[in-house]
What does this fold into?
Amino acid sequence: MVFALGGGLLTLALTLLGLLLFTFVISRVVPIDPLLSILGERATAAQYEAARLALGLDEPMWKQFLIYLGDALQGDLGTSIRSRQPVLSEVAHRFPATLELATLGTLFGVITGVPAGVLAATRPGSIADQVVRVVGLMGYSMPVFWLGLIGLLVFYGQLDWVAGPGRLDATYQMMLEFQMTQYTGMILLDSALNGAWDMFRNALSHIVLPAALLGYISMAYISRMTRSFMMNELSQEYITTARVKGMPEWRVVWVHAMRNVLVPLITVIALSYAYLLEGSVLTETIFAWPGLGSYITDALFAADMPAVLGGTVVVGVAFVTLNMASDILYRLVDPRARA
Amino acid sequence: MSTLRAWLTDPSPTSRRQARLGQSYLAWLRIRRNRLAMAGLVIVGLLLLVAAFAPLIAPHDPLVQDLSRRLLPPGTPGNLLGTDDFGRDILSRILYGARITLYIIALVAVTAPVLGLLIGTVAGYFGGWVDAVLMRITDIFLAFPRLILALALVAVLGPGIGNAVLAIALTAWPPYARIARAETLTVRNSDYIAAVRLQGAGAGRIIWGHIVPMCLPSVIIRVTLDMAGVILIAAGLGFLGLGVQPPMPEWGLMISSGRKFLFEQWWVATMPGLAIFLVSLGFNLLGDGLRDVLDPRSAGK
It folds into this structure.
């Protein structure tokens, strides 16, 4: 077990190293001269040279990479060209919005996806099974940004059931910034902790549409995997034994089989959570959601490469860590994987 | 017809070609029974036809602007799906857009799997430290978030269709390497490989001529399933303005141009999305069906 944990951590470290190497290579082939964008066109040759030395751009490549690595490990992801703020603090400011959205989306996905998958697995070939399969395949095939636009068009534009883009109405936004303690940066939690239930309802009506759409995408994946895991379990002999004993079918499925389905399902849920963090790039653009995804795309159009790469590193680290954490968790929970 | 069928289903084929064609025929019979897979096949076939004959089918030139006819609703005579903000016919643009989509997925489909096959078979065949190094690299790439990396790559290389393809292909190869390696491990020690080796064939010849063909079925299934994802990523890049550039009729780009007047002229943004959804669904249905038919491991499930 200790060995498994160690192996997992080693892979994690290697993968993160690879990620940083990737962003480093990208940052060095970028056709924009980083010095020109920092100093401006009118810098003298002496200023230019001084800055070049200060940034260590005269060192050999491998040394530059080590410097970059050391900085990144200490949390220095560079300085945004637009705002002149450290990228890490900007990203940290944006991260809760993305986290809130992805968490709620995953929650939707699990709540709908697991029962749908179980339903399909217990009646293979039935109408219900076909419906779950087709609805799932549609989720796989839907461009998320298009689905977001349609959602806005129908539920905001036509039906007016939900609030529009953004996290809060403007009035509540002011309230949040000037009158409240922001404990977590996640508005749903913060407004609840402050007892501001009006604001909570407003935030909820803003988040429900993007979260439901992301949830649909993750439901497609979760229901499919649940179905396959559950069918696999239901064909095992211990299930036959349980049935022969006369155990009610719901208990066979939801207690006995489910216990074993949950183990691989942890990995699936963690993976889909990681995908939602990444998928937020497009969703946040549609819903004007001030999270990490829109931070990266905004920076992209402003040619603010440190911000783009810093954001990429943070999403990458979150993605890789979730991946590895689920892998390690899986080995801990499943005794067969421990050997 | 019946003699052809008898020849194809002959239980004791007399030539290798007959056996191979017979196998394909049986697989085809199994796919044909799967209605969802057939629906997928029809959609993919339609995409190919539309891309090939776009100039013949499209009622208008996809690029010609007519500002007196801008933002007409669907159903207008002459503009079945309406017009966009430059007065261009949306239907014609969608039909021509099929060419761009097909171009992107074809390029990705010939680059990413080949790279993956190369890495996977070499790793599997040689084993040892070669295997360890190559597979570790594959794992690292596999653990990366694809869309974000493609985004970062395009941001650096500059927007454009070629760079979009490059970015997608560079992030798409790892699953193929995994598959190819697994298949290679199962055949590496078999007798026929030993026989070829005894005849003096080199590693390159064995891998290319005798191992790669064994990997192809599972790789092809994976390619079909992956194409849906490739279409979505390409459309996403186009939507963000990082892929194909205006005035080309790329579907993702068309959605983003319709976003400005979503609530007043809804059709400009929604119509191209339908095309993306349909084509991507087609590939998913076909890939799903192909896996059921060709992959014996999942057949029982």
In short: The mean pLDDT of chain B is 86. Residues 129 and 252 of chain B are 43 Å apart (CA to CA). The interface with chain A takes residues 36, 136-137, 139-141, 143-149, 151-153, 155-156, 158, 228, 232, 235-236, 239-242, 252, 255, 259, 262-263, 266, 269-270, 273, 276-277, 280-281, 283-285, 288, 301 of chain B (CB under 8 Å). Chain B is about 75% helix and 0% strand.
